[in-house]
Design brief:
195 residues, SH3 type barrels, 2 domains, 5-stranded antiparallel beta sheet, 12 strands
Length: 195
């Protein structure tokens, strides 16, 4: 297959490729990448727009001859604008699964939870997550009034509603979702490489 040959050549020569990627946070946009390795149907490459190493699924890549193959190309880094953890789940689920993670997502009225799990050798998901990104709108401000635990009548909004937890890593909270997602994806990559 010519596409695989071109990618292997780019790896050997540390060359940059222009691709149209039909997945991820910006499906269908042109990207400039430097492939680092290829394993079956996955390509590990440095994305020039974000400056980060990402996993691309081979069948979702179209190699382009030039930047003029698409009008959406920009050399400026484009950050996705996430409104909720549900958006993050939809944008990165394929990428996370391509890394080998089992991805779990739960959502309620005032909370959401995205977690990454390894699998046992038999393929079943390990129940405890290796990493998670959660959203909780209100603080748990129960207090003891001398007789019972009481919740305040007016709940208090959390200043930092997004929290990242990971194995062998400090728990971190963020006020902005985009920053939390960036750190969560870095953590997912680092944990997978160390596994």
């Amino acid at each position: 297959m010519k596409k695989i040959g071109d990618i292997k050549d780019a790896i050997s020569n540390t060359a940059t490729l222009i691709i149209k990627y039909h997945a991820g946070s910006q499906p269908g946009t042109l990207r400039r990448i430097t492939p680092l390795s290829i394993d079956k149907d996955r390509i590990m490459a440095r994305c020039h727009a974000t400056g980060r190493t990402k996993v691309f699924i081979l069948e979702k890549i179209k190699l382009c001859q030039s930047e003029q193959d698409g009008s959406e190309w920009t050399d400026e880094p484009r950050k996705p604008n996430f409104e909720s953890l549900n958006d993050v789940h939809h944008a990165y689920r394929d990428t996370l699964e391509a890394m080998g993670w089992c991805v779990r997502f739960e959502e309620g009225d005032e909370h959401a939870y995205l977690s990454l799990h390894r699998r046992f050798k038999n393929g079943k998901m390990i129940k405890s997550p290796d990493a998670s990104l959660s959203f909780q709108r209100y603080r748990d401000d129960e207090y003891f009034d001398g007789e019972d635990f009481v919740k305040p009548e007016v709940p208090t909004l959390r200043k930092y509603p997004y929290t990242i937890r990971g194995k062998h890593a400090a728990t971190k909270s963020f006020g902005k979702l985009d920053r939390a997602v960036e750190k969560f994806m870095e953590s997912a990559q680092a944990l997978k490489q160390s596994a």
